Backbone:
C-alpha cells in the first residue's frame, strides 16, 4: 500500500544574511503520525515551523502540505493547517467567545462549531470572560481551540507544554492523543524530551540547523546500538551463577550477592531470562532501563558536533592524533 | 481580496476600539473641545460667557483639530500592525485564510470607522447643543469642517498603518508616528512661513501650492478657511493663494489630492507588508 504523506519537505534551506538557520532539510510525515521535533533553543525549530506555516519564505527547497506547495498565499493550504504558537497572544479586550468567533469567521465556520470547540477545550463556562484575564493554561486552551476549529489535517504545535502546570500538561497530552485518534497528523516542537518520548511516534532531532536523525525511538536506539540495562534481583544467592550465564553466552554481566546486572539489546531480554528460569533460579524482581531519549539525544548531538568540528578543522584533528 | 475577510478584521478592530474605551474617550474629548470653544471663546475678548455661533467655533476648533487629530490617528494606527507583530498575535492571524492586504485594509476600515464615529458623535453632539443655544447660522461651515476632520483623520490613519508595517515594535512605531507628526504638523508650517515670506510672488504661489498639496494638514486648513471666507483676514499671500486655488477649481484639486493621501500610503502599506517576513 502506498504511504500517504501529509507533509513533504525537500531540500529546505533558510539563510538570514550569512547565518544559516535551516540546512538541507528533508522530511516526510505520514498521515496520522505524531512527530516530535527536538532540538536546543536556537537549533532552527521555530524557523522551520514558520516556513511550514508560510510565514517565512525558504531560501531554497520546498514544503508541500496535503499536496499543495506552501507559498504563504494559498488559501486552501491554510485550511489544512492548525497552528498553536509557543505563547498564545490574543486581543486582551475581547472575550473568549468573541475571539473564537473572529477566527471562525475568517475560516467561514458556523457559531455552532465555535460552541463545540470551546466545549472540547473546556472553556464553555468562561466564554464571556475577557481573554486578557485568562491564565496561561486557559490561553493555551483557547489557542488550541482556534487551531483545531476547522478540523485541520496537520496540527503544528510550537513548544506546547512550555509554561503549563502539570495538570495542564496532562490535559494537553490527552487532547493531542484524542485529535490524533480522530485522524489529525500532529507535529510538535519541544526541548522537553519526556514529552517527545511519551507522545511521539516519530522523532526528528535538529542540531545547528541540520536534521541529524529521524525515526522512531527504537530505530534511533538501534542506529546507535544503545543497550538496555537489566537488574535481576534474586530470591537468594546462587554459587556458580556467573559461570552458568557465561556458558550460555550471556554477557557482559556483573553478579552481585543477590542480583545480576547486565546490558543487552532490547529484543534479547527474554533470551537472558530463559536460562535463569531453566536453572531453577527464583527471581524476586526485574528492573529494566531502556535507553532513554535523553541518552539517544545526547549521543546523537555529540556525534553531530564532532562531525561538524571535523568538517571545520580537519587539519587540527590530524595534528592532535599525531601528538597523541 | 475578499470583502468578507476585510469586514471580519474591521469588526474585530472596531470591537477592540470600543472595549479599550478609547472610542468613548475621544468622543468626549471632541465634544468637550467644541463646547468649550463655543462657550469660553468670547470670554477672552472680555465679552463674558455664552455660546458662540458655528462660524467662530469652526475657526477656533480648526487649529486645535489640525494639531490633535493627526496625532490621535498616528498613535492609533501606529500600534495596529506593529503591536500585533510584537505580541505575536499576527502570526496566528496570518496562518488563517486571510491575506496580508485584507488584514491592512480591514484594520484601516475598522480603525477608520471608529475614528469617524468618535469625530461625528463628539463634534455632532456638540453641534446639536450649539444649534439649540445659538441657532443654525453657518452650520454648513461647521459640517464641512467635521467632514474634513474625518478625512484628515483617515489620511493620517493611512500614513500610520504604513509606519506600523515598516516597524516591528509598538514603541518603535509610536516613536516614528510622533516624529512624522512633528514633521508634518509643526516643522512643515515653518517651511511654509519661510516660503511665504519670500518676495517674488510669482515663485511663492506655485511653491506654496506644491507645499500645500504635499501636506494633508495644510490642505484641510485651506479648505476650511476657504469655506469660512477667511482669505481677507489671513494676509495677502494666502489671499493670492486662495485666489489661485479658487480660479483653478481648487476645491476639487485639494479633495482629489486628499483622497490620494488616504489611498497611496495604504497601497504602500499593503505592498510593504507583503514583502516583509522578519517577524
Residues:
Amino acid at each position: 500500500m502506498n504511504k500517504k504523506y501529509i507533509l513533504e519537505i525537500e531540500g529546505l534551506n533558510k539563510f538570514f544574511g550569512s547565518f544559516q538557520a535551516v540546512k538541507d532539510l528533508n522530511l516526510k510525515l505520514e498521515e496520522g503520525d505524531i512527530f516530535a521535533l527536538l532540538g536546543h533553543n536556537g537549533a532552527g525549530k521555530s524557523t522551520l515551523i514558520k516556513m511550514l506555516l508560510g510565514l517565512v519564505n525558504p531560501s531554497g527547497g520546498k514544503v508541500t502540505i496535503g499536496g499543495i506547495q506552501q507559498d504563504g498565499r494559498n488559501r486552501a493550504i491554510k485550511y489544512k493547517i492548525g497552528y498553536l504558537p509557543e505563547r498564545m497572544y490574543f486581543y486582551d479586550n475581547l472575550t473568549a467567545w468573541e475571539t473564537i468567533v473572529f477566527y471562525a469567521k475568517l475560516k467561514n465556520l458556523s457559531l455552532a462549531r465555535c460552541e463545540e470547540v470551546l466545549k472540547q477545550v473546556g472553556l464553555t463556562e468562561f466564554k464571556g470572560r475577557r481573554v486578557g484575564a485568562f491564565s496561561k493554561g486557559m490561553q493555551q486552551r483557547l489557542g488550541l481551540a482556534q487551531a483545531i476549529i476547522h478540523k485541520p489535517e496537520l496540527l503544528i504545535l510550537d513548544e506546547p507544554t512550555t509554561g503549563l502546570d502539570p495538570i495542564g500538561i496532562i490535559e494537553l497530552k490527552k487532547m493531542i492523543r484524542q485529535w490524533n485518534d480522530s485522524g489529525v497528523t500532529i507535529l510538535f516542537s519541544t526541548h522537553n524530551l519526556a514529552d517527545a518520548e511519551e507522545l511521539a511516534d516519530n522523532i526528528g532531532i535538529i542540531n545547528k540547523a541540520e536534521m541529524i536523525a529521524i525515526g522512531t525511538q527504537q530505530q534511533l536506539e538501534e542506529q546507535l546500538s544503545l543497550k538496555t540495562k537489566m537488574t535481576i534481583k534474586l530470591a537468594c544467592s546462587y554459587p556458580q551463577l556467573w559461570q552458568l550465564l557465561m556458558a550460555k553466552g550471556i554477557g557482559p554481566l556483573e553478579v552481585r550477592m543477590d542480583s545480576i546486572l547486565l546490558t543487552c539489546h532490547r529484543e534479547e531480554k527474554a533470551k537472558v531470562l530463559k536460562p535463569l528460569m531453566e536453572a531453577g533460579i527464583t527471581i524476586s524482581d526485574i528492573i529494566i532501563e531502556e535507553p532513554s531519549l535523553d541518552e539517544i539525544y545526547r549521543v546523537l548531538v555529540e556525534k553531530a558536533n564532532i562531525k561538524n568540528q571535523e568538517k571545520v578543522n580537519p587539519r587540527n584533528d590530524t595534528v592532535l592524533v599525531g601528538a597523541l | 481580496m475578499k470583502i468578507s475577510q476585510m469586514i471580519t478584521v474591521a469588526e474585530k478592530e472596531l470591537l477592540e476600539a470600543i472595549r479599550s474605551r478609547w472610542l468613548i474617550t475621544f468622543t468626549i474629548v471632541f465634544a468637550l473641545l467644541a463646547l468649550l470653544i463655543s462657550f469660553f471663546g468670547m470670554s477672552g475678548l472680555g465679552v463674558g460667557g455664552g455660546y458662540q455661533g458655528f462660524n467662530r467655533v469652526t475657526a477656533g476648533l480648526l487649529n486645535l483639530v489640525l494639531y490633535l487629530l493627526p496625532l490621535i490617528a498616528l498613535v492609533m494606527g501606529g500600534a495596529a500592525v506593529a503591536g500585533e507583530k510584537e505580541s505575536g498575535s499576527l502570526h496566528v492571524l496570518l496562518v488563517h485564510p486571510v491575506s496580508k492586504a485584507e488584514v491592512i485594509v480591514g484594520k484601516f476600515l475598522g480603525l477608520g470607522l471608529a475614528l469617524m464615529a468618535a469625530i461625528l458623535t463628539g463634534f455632532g453632539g456638540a453641534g446639536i447643543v450649539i444649534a439649540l443655544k445659538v441657532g443654525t447660522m453657518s452650520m454648513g461651515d461647521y459640517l464641512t469642517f467635521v467632514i474634513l476632520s474625518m478625512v484628515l483623520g483617515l489620511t493620517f490613519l493611512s500614513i500610520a498603518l504604513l509606519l506600523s508595517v515598516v516597524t516591528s515594535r509598538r514603541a518603535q512605531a509610536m516613536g516614528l508616528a510622533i516624529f512624522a507628526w512633528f514633521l508634518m504638523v509643526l516643522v512643515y508650517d515653518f517651511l511654509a512661513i519661510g516660503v511665504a515670506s519670500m518676495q517674488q510672488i510669482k515663485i511663492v504661489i506655485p511653491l506654496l501650492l506644491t507645499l500645500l498639496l504635499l501636506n494633508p494638514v495644510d490642505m484641510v486648513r485651506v479648505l476650511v478657511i476657504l469655506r469660512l471666507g477667511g482669505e481677507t483676514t489671513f494676509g495677502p499671500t494666502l489671499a493670492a493663494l486662495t485666489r489661485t486655488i479658487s480660479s483653478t477649481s481648487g476645491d476639487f484639486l485639494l479633495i482629489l489630492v486628499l483622497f490620494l493621501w488616504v489611498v497611496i500610503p495604504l497601497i504602500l502599506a499593503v505592498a510593504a507588508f507583503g514583502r516583509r517576513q522578519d517577524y
Remarks:
- The CA atoms of residues 36 and 107 of chain B lie 32 Å apart.
- Chain B touches chain A through 24 residues (CB under 8 Å).
- The longest helix of chain B spans residues 100-134.
- Residues 44-48 of chain B have pLDDT under 50 and may be disordered.
